[in-house]
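Regression check, guanosine-5'-monophosphate case 204:
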Amino acid sequence: MAIVCIEFEVKTVKLLEDRILAEGKALSDSVLKVDGFLNHQVDPDLMEAIGKDFCEHFKSFGITRVLTIESSGIAPAVYTAQALNVPMVILKKQTSKILNGQVFQTNITSFTKGTSYELTLSRDYISKDDKVLIIDDFLANGEAASGAARLVQMAGAEVSGIGILIEKSFQNGRTKLDDAGFHVYSQARVSRLGEGIIEFLKEA
Ligand code: 5GP
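Current build output:
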């Protein structure tokens, strides 16, 4: 049966860009704070629109699982999974290695905190037949998304796509994921940050 994601037209990318401009704060020329609707307080209506937009983009990819990283990916990922009518799986951030063989783990360096952690996936929730859509809130250097993709591949499944809410296009994550051959769809693409400055890439 065909997947229906959006019953009426919502310009989600415009909604997201407008919220970033209205509420986002550039903490430096590389870090954007969006605590008011995504990272601390969550706007469910915006997350629902975001989920429907990811669904619309990826509906023909045969997605069987949506995968995200705790904690800020969870809200958009759950709406995406609901729209695609598939389960959503959360990758956990553990401080140390788990050695019981029940999980896949890979080491990630956090862009915002500068610390590293073990991104962890239970063997129970992704199998080799899965076609996985990875959703994350931000794309900076591509560490988190690449690590999530490695875990999917360790489970023998396919990374069918990567959906990002806010890509900082001036950092190297997008190029890294494109070069690795992943299909990446970013809703808002920030081209420049600075004191009082938030600019977006103009689509050609
Ligand atoms: P990457 O792994 O691509 O270097 O960084 C992506 C991760 O770091 C995201 O999961 C997000 O949690 C965090 N992150 C990166 N840049 C920003 C930013 O400018 N603002 C916020 N709030 N989080 C960011």
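Comparison notes: The mean pLDDT is 95. Helices lie at 12-23, 35-39, 44-58, 74-84, 143-154, 173-179. No diff flagged against the previous build.
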